[in-house]
Amino acid sequence: MSGGEGPQRFGARLAEAVTAHGPLCAGIDPHTPLLAAWGLTDDADGVERFGRIVVEALAEHVACVKPQAAFFERHGSRGVAALERVVADARAAGLLTIVDAKRGDIGSTMAGYADAFVGDSPLAGDAVTVSPYLGFGSLRPLLDLAAQHGRGVFVLALTSNPEGAAVQHAVGADGRPVARAVAEAAAAENAGATPYGDVGLVVGATVGSAVSDLGIDLAAVNGPLLAPGVGAQGGTAEDLRQVFGDARRLVLAASSREVLAAGPSTTALRDAARRSADALTAALAG
């Protein structure tokens, strides 16, 4: 997914944004209690207003934002339209977006998801999250279309939820743990890319020793490592150092609650994001 003519690669654009603003990816998670706390209605209008406030506040202040598609989709077609407008606002503001949709399927259905989230669709941000658990090869239609459009893909690898280990730690027929096989497949996609590739992994900030226990070389992935679970969800600076080790330069730490709790004031959101980004920069230094 490196080189060639066409749009600037996602990995290169993300690296520039992290250099400029720090390694924070701010979530856009308009769930019911947070909408109420912001004085917004729990409907399509409310989630759209929520998302657009976050974009207005954080454009030119964070590396990227990550709208959670589910909180928009629960309001049906008007909610999906609201997500499209939030993505459009971010694009207009020059703010990178990772649409957190976690799609995964096979064949023509996967090609349909590719059209929706990395093609010319108004739902397509700069990157999307996907699930590889129908086999990494099932992602091929989406990986190929993402490369054509200069978009990124974040593949679930090691998640923090306890149930995830039953699949991610399982050993395949080739003797490799599933999460390690996913990481090595992503590394193959990113081979030779600089400053790093366009295929990232989702690795929870609180997975503890799982990376080393499973023999995963995150530095070799040569792609961005999206790390949810930082801050209010329990992930600490020490967790980041333990989990990511010498791959810390690749980490893009996702934080939602810690930043969003400061809203709806755009000034307060901006200040919370800066504090979080500064703390993450310090935690990942060295």
TrEMBL record:
InterPro entries in the cross-refs: Aldolase_TIM, OMPdecase_AS, OMPdecase_type-2, OMPdeCOase_dom, RibuloseP-bd_barrel
Keyword Lyase: yes
Domain Orotidine 5'-phosphate decarboxylase: 23-272
Alphabetized SUPFAM superfamilies for the sequence: Ribulose-phoshate binding barrel
Keyword terms of this UniProt record: Decarboxylase, Lyase, Pyrimidine biosynthesis
Catalytic activity: orotidine 5'-phosphate + H(+) = UMP + CO2
Pathway participation: Pyrimidine metabolism; UMP biosynthesis via de novo pathway; UMP from orotate: step 2/2
Entry GO MF terms: orotidine-5'-phosphate decarboxylase activity
CDD domains: OMP_decarboxylase_like
EC number assigned by the record: 4.1.1.23
Entry annotation: catalytic residues: K102
EC top class, as a word: lyase
SMART domains named among the record's database cross-references: OMPdecase (SM00934)
Family recorded in the similarity comment: Belongs to the OMP decarboxylase family. Type 2 subfamily.
HAMAP family: OMPdecase_type2
Protein name: Orotidine 5'-phosphate decarboxylase
Source species of the chain: Kineococcus endophyticus
